[in-house]
Design brief:
By secondary structure, the chain is α/β, with parallel strands linked by helices. It is 47% helix and 17% strand. Strands 3, 4, 5, 6, 7, 8, 9 and 10 form an 8-stranded mixed β-sheet that branches.
């Protein structure tokens, strides 16, 4: 029996066990926790103990358990011990195997068929994370909440960035789009992400995340587009020592809670979950800024050639990706895109 099939069977068995142990199963809405009994919140992620994303999860646990005087117990399954992918995390949230998770914006867009979440894949829409938060914490955040609530079994709790995209490659320095011509750059299959790297001149190559390092070693790909902290943490720089800080996308994580679980809680415990979520988001945003700075400094010390684009060079990249935006904007929704531009004070 293949390893993949064994993993699927294992995760299925674990899921069934967790579903059957769900604290809100069969309970009347608004009553879970009223008897003073322990309430378990199950979270999961794919990262290691020392990853800043996991550190943010621990902040949620700390606040939820403290504010509930120990009535809430938060169990965190990290390092992919419960689920091997964000897509499966999302499905486990929908079915109630997990109660609270964070997923990348494009994962939510794809699985929930919620176009408003594809706004984060419009290249160069945001000059920095603060602009993204201006959008998600304001009027556009209400669109995100409504879209998720109508199309899934989850509520939107907020967003935080886990870094901005850069391009690492093992061929040569990249300072303008023409430098990418002919390079095989790993990308997700998300139309806007793949379309963006193609518009820049590279050949988008879909390879699973776990195969990136080996593929760079073997020459299957020449580079990768992902966040600077991930390039550093997963040591892609060891096999791709040219790093260009294009910052063409942020990578937001969407914090969500299962509807049935949340609706089942007493009002007091709902407030605890809300406070824990807000504290996690605030803390995670601070961690991301530090992680990005640490990643760049760390790679420079290792001899990586880090390119900070001049305004003129950056403008060349911005102009190059317009065809990708024009071709794929329907995936975001023209109205969503125009709303975002208006709220950010920008024009097409």
């Amino acid at each position: 029996m293949g390893k993949f099939r064994l993993k699927v069977i294992f995760f299925t068995i674990v899921s069934i066990v967790l579903i059957l142990s769900g604290c809100s199963a069969g309970k009347k809405a608004g009553t879970v926790g009223a008897d003073g009994k322990k309430v378990v919140i199950r979270m999961a992620n794919l990262v290691s103990d020392n990853n800043f994303l996991h550190t943010g999860y621990k902040k949620f646990k700390e606040v939820a358990e403290k504010e509930s005087n120990g009535q809430i117990e938060v169990q965190i399954y990290n390092n992919g011990t419960l689920t091997p992918s964000e897509d499966m995390e999302y499905e486990m949230l929908q079915t109630g195997v997990l109660d609270v998770v964070t997923n990348a914006g494009f994962v939510v867009a794809s699985n929930a068929h919620a176009p408003s979440y594809s706004i984060f894949d419009v290249p160069f829409l945001f000059s920095n994370e603060e602009e993204m938060y201006k959008l998600t914490d304001g009027e556009y955040g209400e669109i995100l909440k409504k879209d998720l609530e109508e199309k899934s079994n989850a509520y939107f709790l907020g967003t935080f960035s886990i870094g901005s995209f850069a391009i690492a490659n093992n061929k040569h320095e990249v300072r303008e789009p023409s430098d990418l011509k002919g390079l095989k750059i790993r990308s997700t299959t998300t139309p806007l992400q793949a379309g963006t790297i193609a518009a820049m001149g590279a050949n988008p190559t879909p390879i699973s995340y776990g195969e990136i390092f080996t593929s760079l070693q073997q020459g299957t790909i020449d580079g990768v587009q992902t966040t600077t902290p991930l390039i550093h943490a997963d040591r892609f720089y060891e096999v791709a020592d040219n790093l260009t800080l294009t910052r063409h996308f942020p990578l937001p994580h969407i914090l969500m809670v299962n509807k049935d679980f949340y609706d089942g809680l007493t009002d007091e415990l709902k407030r605890v979950v809300d406070k824990a979520a807000n504290e996690q988001i605030k803390y995670a945003r601070e961690l991301a800024v530090k992680a990005e700075k640490k990643a760049i400094e760390g790679m420079e010390k290792k001899g990586v050639k880090v390119v900070e684009l001049t305004p003129e060079e950056l403008e060349l990249f911005k102009k190059s990706v317009q065809p990708a935006i024009d071709k794929n904007i329907d995936r975001v929704g023209k109205e969503n895109y125009e709303t975002a531009l208006k709220l950010l004070g920008k024009t097409e």
